[in-house]
Each structure stands twice: as structure tokens, then as C-alpha cells.
Amino acid sequence: MVRVAFRRFLGNDPATMSSKETPADSFIRFLETAMPEGLAQSVRQNMRAAASSAFEKMELVSREELDVQQRVLLRSREKLEALEKQVAELEQQLLKK
């Protein structure tokens, strides 16, 4: 059960994480899943406040922003490879002259 909750916390289960869910909310949901049912509500609230504070200090990005940046990086790599190939071809042309 904890393993499934942790997988969800890591974002491997998109069906359980809304786009507006903060990292703190996801982390608290993970911890609540791993906690015994009888844990007091005040402890959960204190954990939420502490986790929110810690995550704010980390300046984390959303999953959507990470996905966008990964696509940008992929396109940049493709362009770089094309330019490297073009430079190599131009160098070969210069050597032939």
C-alpha cells in the first residue's frame, strides 16, 4: 500500500494527481495513506503546514512545466545534432578544396 502511494506521490499515476495539486498536497496525501487510520487531525494539519513550508523553500516546478521543458530540451538537442552534422559536412567540403 505504501509503495502504491509513493508511486502516486512521485507522479507515476497521473489519474490521481490533478494539475492544480501542489507538491505539498501530494506529499501529505502520500503520508496520510501510509498513516494509521486513528492519527489525530491536528497532527495531519501540522504536517501539512510543515510540508508546505518546506516545499515552498525548494522552489519546485509543476509536472506540466517539467514536461514542457523536456520537450524544449529534446527539440534543442535535435537542432544541435542537425547543426553538428551541417558543420561536419561543411568541414568536409573545405577539406576537398
User: Fraction of residues in helices?
Assistant: over 70%
Number of DSSP-assigned strands: 0
β-strand amount: under 5%
How does the helix and strand content classify structurally? mainly alpha
Unreliable residue runs:
1-7
Helix count, DSSP H or I runs of 4 or more residues: 4
- Characterize the biggest β-sheet: none
Describe the structure.
The structure is a single chain. With 97 residues, the protein is an all-alpha fold. It folds into two domains: 1-60, no CATH class; 61-97. It contains four helices and no strands. The chain has helices at residues 2-9, 23-34, 41-58, 63-96. Helix 1 packs antiparallel against helix 2 and helix 2 (23-34) packs antiparallel against helix 3. The protein is rod-shaped. It starts with a helix and ends with a helix. Residues 1-7 have low confidence and may be disordered.
Spell out the blueprint of helices and strands.
Elements: H1 2-9, H2 23-34, H3 41-58, H4 63-96
In short:
By secondary structure, this protein is an all-alpha fold.
Task: For the structure shown, list the relevant keywords.
single chain; 4 helices; 97 residues; mainly alpha
